[in-house]
Amino acid sequence: MSIKRSSLDRGMTRRPGSDDGGKVDRQDFWDELTRRAQDNEPFAPQDIAQTVGASEAVVSKHLLTLALERLVEKVDGGRYRAGPIAGFSQAEFIKAMNARIDPKRQQDLLEVERLKKNNDEMRRRLFDAMADRDRLRTLLEKHGIDPTEAP
Q1: Contact at 8 Å (CB) between 61 and 96?
Q2: Deepest in the core among 66, 74, 96, 112, taking most CB within 10 A?
Q3: For 100-138, what is each residue's pLDDT tens digit?
Q4: How far is Cα 18 from Cα 2, in angstroms, rounded to an integer?
């Protein structure tokens, strides 16, 4: 046994908001995220950190992990939205918090997300172009012009 003792061994408790080795109370974190999921308003990591009494760095790390596991949504400006967490149980939340994110996997997930957004945008543009084509074809036919004929 070590001669030195921590403040906890002497009966003292840690102060809320102190960096106690990178830990955050999971129950407080869960409660705060589920409360914010009802509003579904964007929030910053420091907002959660102040509420649950943890350091901003620890909360940011956990929020990033939860975002990669799709329990929260990362929005612009380093902010998050807790809406998706409403569809998950507390057990799934704890499992996601304990997930170890490989940097390569993280990079791949971000690339997949970027490609999905690009695909959705291209699909939207294609459908808009098809709708315009159909509208113009209908107008031509209405005026007795065959759209398949070369001018």
Answers
A1: no
A2: 66
A3: 777 777 788 788 989 999 999 999 999 999 999 999 999
A4: 24
